[in-house]
Amino acid sequence: MAGEPQDDCLFCKIVEGHIPATIVRETETTVAFRDINPQAPVHVLVIPKAHYANAAELATEAPELAVDILRETKAVADEDKLESYRIVFNTGPGAGQTVFHAHAHVLGGRGMQWPPG
Ligand code: 5GP
Ligand code: ZN
Fold first, then answer.
1. Terminal-residue alpha carbon distance, the chain
2. What's the predicted TM-score (pTM) here?
3. Residue to mutate (ligand 1; options 98, 105, 107; most atoms within 8 A of CB)
């Protein structure tokens, strides 16, 4: 059920504190923590505390949380003093999504190429 914690979800376990993470920010509705396998000097994941499978489900089922996520990406960028950064929502396995709890990647601290791979 959209929004409900899922027993088999890694990021729900991080929200619940059952799996440790380096948390950089927390709000009533979101958590931001450092990616375990960083792809840039700054690589933070911003997630809703509620479980939605991906950005598409979040946008449809809880658009107010999508706004919260976007606001937090800016806060993360400000805290890490990033002037330029990239926000990525991998959506679906074909786009590289491996954890099916919606999350924004905030990547920065190095130059970025376009188009992405
Ligand atoms: P996706 O590939 O789904 O867009 O992104 C999932 C991200 O979660 C990956 O960048 C991966 O490194 C990160 N990740 C996977 N497991 C863990 C974990 O246990 N802790 C943290 N902090 N990040 C994780
Ligand atoms: Zn989850």
1. 33
2. 0.98
3. 98
